[in-house]
Task: inverse folding
C-alpha cells in the first residue's frame, strides 16, 4: 500500500475487520457456509491477481476478504453456541425460567456486597433438570439477600473459589425496553454472563469452601483484600479518600459514593479513577527510569517491566481495560526488540486487530471504544500538535544562552528562534543594569520555556482527547464536560502521584516502608484530587447534560477526524473547528435522535418532528414502577412519576440503579427533550418517586406537583431536591383544571382533606381530554379510592386507562370499570416481581369489560399519539399496534 497506508498497514486491516464485525449486527438470517466460500473465493482472486502483478486488484480482494472475515467472526461470536451452553439450554426451553431449579457452580470473581445483599458471579457447572443433572457452560449472577448480622445461625460469607449448590430462580438478563435505553443484556453477555438468579436466603445453599480455587488468582485476590484492609486501617477517618485510593490502585470502584462519581464525571476526569493505560504508562515509565539509574541493559529492563505490568494486571484482576493496554505494551516492546523503532499508530492499531480477531464482540464495548479512541487521539492529534506546533516554538527557549542551534525553516521554527533571541537580548539588557542578572534571566527563560512546553503539551493532549471522546461520551453518558482540558492538567499529575503513593501504601502493607508516612501521603493526595475536581466541576458552565446524538453523526465525524489525522492533512485548526462544531451541535441537541423520529424498534413512527397538534402519552418500561411522559401539542413536556426499583427482579439489575437517571432521562434525551415544564408525583412510594430527583437535576424543570402531605419522609426529600434546583412546588387536589395547547388536564384525586386515606388511595389522578381523546391516569389507587372516585359523579369514561397499582387484585374493580369503559388499558409492572403483578383477576376484569391490556414488561414503552380525532398506538417491541379514528 502506498503512502501512509503502507507505513501503517494495520490501519486498513483493522478498519476492514471492524467494518465486517459491525455489519454482523444487520444480519439475522444467513448461510454461514456461503460466507466462507465467498471469503475463500476473494482470497483466491487476490492471490491470482498478485501473481499477475495486479497489485491494486489483489489488495482490494484481500481487504474485501478481511471484511467478510470480520462479518463471519461477528456472526459466529453471536450465534455459534455449544449444546451445553447456558444459552442453548434457554433456547431449547430445557431450563425453566422463573422457577426454582437446582444448580451447581463455582464463585469465579470477588463477591460484591451491599446493604441489600450479595451479588455472586458463578461459573456454572450444571442444572438438575427433571431427574438428571445436565452439564452447563457459562456464567450466571446470583443475588443473595442479606442475613441479619445478629442471627445466631448466620451462614459463612461466600468467597472466590467456593463451590455452591442449591435452588435458585433463574432468568435471562433483560433491558428496559425504551428508546435510548442502554443494552445491559449485551454487556453482560460480553462478560460471559447469560443468566441472572436469586435465592430467598443463603441458608438454602450448600457451600464447599475453596473447592475450585485457582492458586494464582487466589493469591492475587488475597493481595487485593490485604491492601483493602490496610487502606481501611490507614485511612479510617476518611472513607471518601480511601475509596478513591482503592479505585486508582486496584480498580475497586465499589466504595465510590454517587457524589464523588458525579464530580469526576462532570469535570471530565473520571478516567483517572479507572485502571487503564494511564496506570500502565506511569508504572512502565517509572520502572524504566529506575532501571536506567541502575544502569541495566535495555533488553533485560524491558523484560522486567513487562513482567511487572503482567503482575500488576493480575493484581487488578485482568480487567478488560488493563488487558488491552497489556497487549499494546507487549507489542511495543516486541517492536522495539525486533525493529529498534516502531510507529506508535501501528502498535495501537495492531493490538486492536489482534483483540478484535480474538474477541469480535469487544467492538461494541464502550471500554474498548474509549480506550482506543483516547490513544489514537494522543498519537494522531495530540502528539502532532505538540511536535509541530509547540515544540518548535518553545524548545529553542529552553536552550537560551546555550550553544545548540535550531535551523528549521518552518514558520514555527522561525517563531521559536525569534523568541529565544528576544530572551537572550532581554538578558543582556538586564546585565547592563544589574551585575550577574544575565545568568539569572537566562535561567528564568529556560525554566519558563520548559514549564510552558510541559503545560502546553498536557493541554494539547487533553484537548485532543476531549475532541475525540466528547461525541462518544455524549452517546453513552449524555454529558459534555467543557472544563475537561483544564481539569486534566491538575487531575492527571495528582492521580499519578496518588498511584505512586498507593504503591508505597501497598509496600507499607507488606512491611517494606513505614506505613504511617505512606498512608498519610496517599490520604492527602486523594483529598487534594477530590477537592480540585469538585472545584473544576463547580465552575460556571463547566459541564452540561446533552441529548443523545445520533450514532451516524458521531461515526461520520470520527471517521473524518481519523482520516484527516492519519493522512496528516494540513490545517489542523480546521479539523479542530469541525470537531468543535460537532460538539456544539451535540450540546444544542441538533444531532439528537429527535431528528430521526423512531419510537418503536420495528416499524416506523407516524410522528414527524415538524408536525404540530399532536398529543403524546408514552408509558415507559421502568420495571416495577410507573413513569409516563406527556408531550403536549406545543412541545411542552410533563413527566408523571419517575419510576424506581425498591425490590428489583433478578433480570432488572441492582436496587442501587437510579431509574430516573438510567431509564427515564435516557428516553427524554433520546427524544431530544431538553426541558420539562412540570414533573408530577402521584404518591410518595419509591417505585413512583425514586427517579424524580434525577429528572429535576438533569433537566431545567418549571414545577413539581404533588398531592401527598409534605411531612412524608419521601416527600420531604423530594421537596428538598426541588428547592436545591430552584423548582417551584405546587400541591394539587381534586377540582384543579389546567389547559395546555388545547389539552384539558383535570385533577380528580386527592380531595382537599386527606382524612384517613392510605398513601395509595391518596394518589394524584389525572384525566386528560384532547378533542375526542381521553386518558385516565390513576397512580396506585385501590378499592377505597376507586369507590370514592366513582361516588363523586365525575366524568371518568376514557379511551385509555393507566391501570392502578400495577394491576393488583385490590384495584381496577367492576364498579370503576363500568364507569371508565376503556378501549386500551396499560399496565406497568416488573417481570417476575415478588408481588405477582399484574394479577390474573385484574386482567380478566379488564378483558370482560372490553379493554385490551398492554403490559410494559411485554411491549416495552407504549405510546399513544393523537390529534384529537385520529390516533396511533405503538410499542417499542411490536411497532404500530393500531391506528384509527376516535369514536365520538
Result:
Amino acid at each position: 500500500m502506498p503512502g501512509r497506508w503502507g507505513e501503517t498497514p494495520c490501519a486498513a486491516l483493522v478498519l476492514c475487520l471492524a467494518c465486517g464485525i459491525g455489519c454482523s449486527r444487520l444480519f439475522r438470517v444467513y448461510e454461514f457456509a456461503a460466507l466462507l466460500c465467498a471469503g475463500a473465493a476473494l482470497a483466491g482472486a487476490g492471490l491470482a491477481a498478485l501473481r499477475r502483478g495486479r497489485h491494486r486488484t489483489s489488495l482490494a480482494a484481500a481487504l474485501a476478504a478481511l471484511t467478510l472475515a470480520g462479518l463471519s467472526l461477528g456472526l459466529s461470536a453471536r450465534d455459534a453456541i455449544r449444546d451445553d451452553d447456558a444459552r442453548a439450554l434457554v433456547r431449547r426451553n430445557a431450563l425453566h425460567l422463573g422457577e426454582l431449579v437446582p444448580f451447581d457452580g463455582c464463585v469465579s470473581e470477588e463477591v460484591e456486597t451491599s446493604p441489600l445483599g450479595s451479588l455472586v458471579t458463578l461459573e456454572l457447572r450444571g442444572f438438575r433438570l427433571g431427574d438428571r443433572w445436565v452439564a452447563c457452560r457459562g456464567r450466571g449472577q446470583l443475588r443473595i439477600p442479606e442475613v441479619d448480622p445478629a442471627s445466631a445461625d448466620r451462614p459463612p460469607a461466600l468467597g472466590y473459589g467456593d463451590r455452591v449448590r442449591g435452588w435458585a430462580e433463574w432468568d435471562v438478563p433483560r433491558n428496559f425496553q425504551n428508546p435510548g435505553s442502554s443494552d445491559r443484556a449485551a454487556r453482560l453477555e460480553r462478560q460471559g454472563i447469560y443468566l441472572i438468579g436469586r435465592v430467598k436466603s443463603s441458608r438454602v445453599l450448600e457451600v464447599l469452601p475453596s473447592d475450585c480455587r485457582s492458586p494464582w488468582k487466589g493469591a492475587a485476590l488475597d493481595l487485593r483484600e490485604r491492601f483493602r484492609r490496610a487502606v481501611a486501617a490507614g485511612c479510617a477517618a476518611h472513607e471518601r479518600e480511601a475509596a478513591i485510593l482503592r479505585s486508582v490502585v486496584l480498580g475497586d470502584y465499589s466504595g465510590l459514593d454517587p457524589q464523588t462519581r458525579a464530580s469526576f464525571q462532570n469535570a471530565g476526569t473520571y478516567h483517572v479513577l479507572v485502571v487503564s493505560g494511564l496506570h500502565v504508562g506511569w508504572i512502565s515509565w517509572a520502572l524504566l527510569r529506575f532501571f536506567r539509574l541502575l544502569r541495566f541493559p535495555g533488553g533485560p529492563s524491558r523484560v522486567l517491566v513487562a513482567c511487572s505490568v503482567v503482575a500488576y494486571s493480575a493484581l487488578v484482576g485482568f480487567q478488560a481495560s488493563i488487558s488491552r493496554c497489556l497487549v499494546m505494551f507487549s507489542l511495543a516492546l516486541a517492536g522495539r526488540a525486533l525493529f529498534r523503532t516502531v510507529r506508535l499508530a501501528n502498535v495501537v492499531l495492531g493490538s486492536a486487530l489482534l483483540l478484535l480477531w480474538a474477541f469480535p464482540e469487544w467492538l461494541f464495548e464502550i471500554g474498548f471504544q474509549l480506550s482506543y479512541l483516547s490513544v489514537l487521539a494522543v498519537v494522531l492529534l495530540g502528539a502532532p500538535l505538540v511536535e509541530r506546533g509547540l515544540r518548535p516554538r518553545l524548545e529553542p527557549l529552553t536552550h537560551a544562552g546555550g550553544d545548540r542551534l535550531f535551523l528549521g525553516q518552518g514558520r514555527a521554527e522561525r517563531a521559536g528562534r525569534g523568541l529565544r533571541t528576544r530572551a537572550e537580548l532581554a538578558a543582556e539588557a538586564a546585565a547592563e543594569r544589574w551585575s550577574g542578572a544575565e545568568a539569572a534571566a537566562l535561567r528564568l527563560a529556560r525554566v519558563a520555556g520548559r514549564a510552558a512546553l510541559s503545560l502546553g503539551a498536557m493541554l494539547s493532549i487533553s484537548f485532543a482527547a476531549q475532541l475525540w471522546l466528547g461525541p462518544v461520551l455524549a452517546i453513552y453518558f449524555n454529558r459534555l464536560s467543557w472544563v475537561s482540558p483544564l481539569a486534566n492538567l491538575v487531575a492527571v499529575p495528582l492521580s499519578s502521584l496518588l498511584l505512586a503513593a498507593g504503591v508505597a501504601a501497598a509496600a507499607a502493607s507488606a512491611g517494606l516502608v513505614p506505613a504511617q508516612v505512606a498512608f498519610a501521603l496517599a490520604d492527602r493526595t486523594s483529598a487534594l484530587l477530590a477537592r480540585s475536581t469538585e472545584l473544576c466541576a463547580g465552575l460556571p458552565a463547566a459541564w452540561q447534560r446533552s441529548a443523545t446524538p445520533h450514532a451516524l453523526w458521531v461515526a461520520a465525524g470520527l471517521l473524518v477526524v481519523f482520516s484527516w489525522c492519519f493522512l496528516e492533512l494540513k490545517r489542523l485548526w480546521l479539523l479542530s473547528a469541525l470537531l468543535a462544531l460537532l460538539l456544539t451541535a451535540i450540546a444544542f441537541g441538533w444531532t439528537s435522535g429527535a431528528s430521526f423520529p423512531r419510537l418503536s424498534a420495528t416499524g416506523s413512527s407516524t410522528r414527524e418532528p415538524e408536525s404540530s397538534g399532536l398529543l403524546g402519552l408514552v408509558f415507559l418500561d421502568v420495571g416495577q414502577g410507573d413513569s409516563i411522559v406527556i408531550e403536549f401539542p406545543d412541545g411542552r413536556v410533563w413527566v408523571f412519576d419517575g419510576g424506581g426499583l425498591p425490590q428489583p427482579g433478578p433480570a432488572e439489575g441492582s436496587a442501587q440503579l437510579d431509574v430516573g437517571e438510567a431509564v427515564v432521562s435516557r428516553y427524554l434525551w433520546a427524544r431530544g427533550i431538553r426541558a420539562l415544564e412540570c414533573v408530577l408525583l402521584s404518591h410518595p412510594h419509591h417505585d413512583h418517586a425514586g427517579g424524580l430527583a434525577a429528572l429535576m437535576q438533569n433537566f431545567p424543570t418549571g414545577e413539581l406537583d404533588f398531592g401527598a402531605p409534605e411531612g412524608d419522609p419521601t416527600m420531604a426529600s423530594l421537596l428538598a431536591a426541588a428547592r436545591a434546583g430552584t423548582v417551584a412546588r405546587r400541591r394539587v387536589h381534586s377540582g384543579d383544571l389546567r389547559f395546555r395547547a388545547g389539552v384539558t388536564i383535570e385533577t380528580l384525586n386527592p380531595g382537599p382533606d386527606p382524612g384517613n386515606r392510605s398513601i395509595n388511595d391518596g394518589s394524584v389522578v389525572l384525566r386528560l381530554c384532547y378533542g375526542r381523546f381521553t386518558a385516565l391516569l390513576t397512580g396506585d389507587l385501590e378499592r377505597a379510592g376507586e369507590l370514592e372516585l366513582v361516588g363523586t359523579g365525575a366524568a371518568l369514561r376514557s379511551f385509555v386507562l393507566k391501570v392502578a397499582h400495577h394491576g393488583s387484585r385490590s384495584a381496577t374493580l367492576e364498579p370503576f370499570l363500568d364507569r371508565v369503559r376503556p378501549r386500551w388499558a396499560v399496565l406497568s409492572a416488573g417481570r417476575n416481581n415478588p408481588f405477582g403483578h399484574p394479577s390474573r383477576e385484574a386482567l380478566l376484569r379488564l378483558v370482560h369489560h372490553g379493554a385490551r391490556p398492554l403490559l410494559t414488561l411485554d411491549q416495552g414503552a407504549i405510546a399513544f399519539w393523537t390529534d384529537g380525532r385520529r390516533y396511533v398506538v405503538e410499542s417499542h417491541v411490536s411497532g404500530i399496534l393500531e391506528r384509527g379514528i376516535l369514536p365520538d
About this structure: The CA atoms of residues 162 and 211 lie 6 Å apart. The chain has a mean pLDDT of 87. DSSP finds 28 helices and 26 strands in the chain.
